[in-house]
Design goal:
By secondary structure, the protein is α+β, with helices and mostly antiparallel strands. The protein has a single domain, classed as VSR Endonuclease (Endonuclease, Chain A, 3-Layer(aba) Sandwich), CATH 3.40.960. It is built from 4 helices and 4 strands, in the order ααβββαβα. The protein has a 4-stranded mixed beta sheet with strand order 1-2-3-4, sandwiched between helices. The longest helix has 24 residues.
């Protein structure tokens, strides 16, 4: 599955100085929701790898959390960047470019899920707004499940 995504070279300029500053502050890892989940899992005695390359042929993708022995991969997806059905918004500035960018993110997520499942991994996706204790329950159940 090949997806066409906007290239950084073709990125439109930021619509304002404030928008540029907001985008520059966005973290790729160690976000608040991810850290909350990690704290709960660690307190439960679960150990994991953080921001690990997935090792999928031909693509560069990384997981938020990886439980190597259990073959479980966890992604904590941001509502904006991954188009949460409850909280997604459509940008007004550069709307066409952003729509293509966000659609490509979602397509990449589905492709990653498929590739990992085909390789025998369990994929857990959580939204940033989900209760980290409930997500931790799902993760713990998957990690403890016999392979």
């Amino acid at each position: 599955m090949s997806t066409t995504r906007p290239s950084p070279e073709s990125s439109p300029p930021a619509s304002s100085v404030a928008a540029l500053a907001r985008m520059r502050r966005q973290r790729r890892r160690d976000t608040g929701p991810e850290m909350a989940l990690r704290r709960i899992l660690h307190a439960r005695g679960l150990r994991y790898r953080v921001d690990r390359p997935l090792g999928l042929a031909g693509v560069r993708r990384r997981s938020d959390l990886t439980f190597v022995g259990a073959r479980v991969v966890v992604f904590v997806d941001g509502c904006y960047w991954h188009r949460c059905p409850l909280h997604t918004t459509a940008p007004k500035a550069n709307a066409e470019w952003w729509a293509a960018k966000l659609d490509a993110n979602v397509a990449r997520d589905r492709d990653t899920d498929r590739r990992l499942a085909e390789a025998g991994w369990t994929v857990i996706r959580a939204w940033e707004h989900e209760d980290p204790a409930l997500v931790a329950e799902r993760v713990a159940a998957a990690v403890s499940r016999p392979r």
